[in-house]
Amino acid sequence: MTYNINRRTFLKNFTTHGIILALAATIDYSYLYPPKQYMCLTEKHFETMGTIGKIQLFEECKFKTQKAISEALKRIFSLEKELSKFNIHSEISKLNRNPFFYHATRDDTVNVLEKGIEFNRLTNGYFDFGLGNLLSIAGIDPNIPLVGTNFFNINSNEKLITIKHNKVKINRSNSMLDLGGIAKGYIIDEAIKIFKANKIKHVALEIGGDIKVYGGTPNNKTWHIILNNGASNDTIKIHTGSISISGGYIKKSVNNINNITHHIVNPKDLKSKNYYTSIIVYGENSIDCDILATALYNINSKDEIKNILKKIPNYEIKYTLI
């Protein structure tokens, strides 16, 4: 069973069929028949933000392709050094090590944190990027130093962070900043800007279930993105736009503490929910899709989902029920 909210003409570039069950990172090229002869497909895999990334693009000039990929990866890894809690030298790790004190931060970090604050409000608190402790004690993200002592004593009404110009501090007790539900989307959006600046016309970029494509394929066809979980395959056809997928099956907990069974924790009661097998969000910006896929996974009310999406134009959700 699927439930769809179709609200904006922006999404006319998207078509879906089948029930989306699982995360995928596969692009199907068999329908191209073939691409224009001077166009070559280049694919690059990489690791970032504790997950796998993939770049796929069509371009006739090999030098132009390699230059664009090199610049995009440089930008991706630079942002990872700022935003990843897995990097002990990142700005996020520095904030977590010394809460309640202001730290000078770069513009990108401030941009992501401000977006997180905005969407915490827009999603009625269902997006909260201060729950990293819970993923650590559940064994999902081990070896990350904990912040505070009473990890389940979190006051959601307390302001998580304060930003003054480019200085940031954590305000809320027992809160570890974790940008896993927002940073990948931001990084993708920034990397795509690099490809556009290099005049690459046909690109697909994925990082850990967040995907952004533009320009279609060389024959002016839509990209075919295959979603699978080993049991079924479903395809999304998209010319230009972003997709983000969330599901409790992606990262399972090692210790079933406080009913935290996977990596998506509901900020309202600090437990994992399993209302859906998976959830997919379509839209323009990858960062917004990334946040919404995380937040809406925790909501079991169709009316509440509709009301949230009314505040955020040009985004659509599709999910499958357990």
Describe it for me?
- The protein is an alpha+beta fold and 322 residues long.
- The protein has a domain of 224 residues: T-fold (Roll).
- Helix content is 27%, strand content 26%.
- A hairpin with a 4-residue loop joins strand 11 and strand 12.
Q: What's the multimeric state?
A: single chain
Give the structural class: alpha+beta
The gross shape turns out to be globular
| Relative strand content | 25-35%
Cα(first) to Cα(last) distance is 9 Å
CATH level 4 superfamily of the domain at 2-85 and 182-321: ApbE-like domains
Mean pLDDT: 84
- Main pleated sheet: 8 strands, antiparallel
CATH architecture field of the domain at 2-85 and 182-321: Roll
Strand order of the largest sheet: 1-17-16-13-10-9-5-4
Q: Could you give the order of the helices and strands? A: EEEEEHHEHHEEHEEEEEEEEHHE
List the helices and strands and how they pair.
Blueprint: E1 2-4, E2 14-17, E3 26-27, E4 40-48, E5 51-59, H1 62-83, H2 91-97, E6 103-104, H3 107-122, H4 132-137, E7 161-164, E8 167-170, H5 183-197, E9 202-207, E10 210-214, E11 223-228, E12 233-238, E13 241-246, E14 265-266, E15 271-272, E16 276-283, H6 286-296, H7 302-310, E17 316-321
Helix pairs in contact: 1-5, 5-6
Write a brief caption for the model:
The protein is an alpha+beta fold and 322 residues long. Helix content is 27%, strand content 26%.
